[in-house]
């Protein structure tokens, strides 16, 4: 059986990258659905029912894993910080899209890979060479071409988006630190965090939803849960600094979903910026492929 130290990068990193791309697609769908729902219901109510819906996916996984593993956690302090970060990310994102166009909110979140690369270097010791740093910055320039912040850049909703994007990046980095914890446990605890926060914020704001609205909010939880599971697994297969720039693909899906659901037609500036982002991401992927093997700490337990 092949040793983990000899697994070629193409076999592990490519799987991690594909999972990250799939997870980002699901997140883009989640974002579009969420913006539609918070137009009619409070953020707390949407997040509460969304969190309950997530257990449609998590329930069978928890039954298979067992409760003992759920409560036996490494680094409880980091687990708590991760739950807090991911809860803030969820709540603040939905709070921002209540008042701002989805494109404005996404422009803040697209700085996430910059934060992740810096935090990965400082907290995880991951090496980020000057070529990848340059590509990340070029990618961010593409973001600015596409989604130049509006005149409301310093409004309270924009502060929500900014803090939410920082929380998202911090949560991604903590995923790498907690790679010994099962995917099921990680996603379950962050779902519990949003469930509690949503329940508190729903007090005094509850509106009785129709069966369709209730189903849509529950479906939002299923889509979000699948996205989190895909990205959590991806981050155990590849360094955060490699996967983070792929988060830019959310912009491409935002164009598609914006056209389908909100009638937004992308102009030349959007298309040019998207091209810059994709090229930067492909270059980063190419640079990572120059590594011959995957170190043992980047391979999830059970892979051999």
Describe this structure in words.
This protein has 13 helices and no strands. α1 (9-38) crosses α4 (76-99). Helices cover 75% and strands 0% of the residues. Residues 1-6 and 291-304 have low confidence and may be disordered. The protein is globular and about 50 Å long. The termini are close together. The chain is mostly helical.
Descriptors:
disordered C terminus; 13 helices; 304 residues; single chain; disordered N terminus; mainly alpha
One letter per element, helices H and strands E, the order comes to HHHHHHHHHHHHH
Residue windows where pLDDT falls under 50 for at least 5 positions: 1-6, 291-304
Which shape, going by the Cα principal axes?
globular
Number of helices: 13
Average pLDDT: 78
Rg from Cα: 19 Å
Query: Based on DSSP secondary structure assignment, what is the total number of beta strands?
Result: 0
Can you give the helix content as a percent range?
Answer: over 70%
Structural category: mainly alpha
What percentage of amino acids are in beta strands? under 5%
Largest sheet: none
Through-space gap between termini: 7 Å
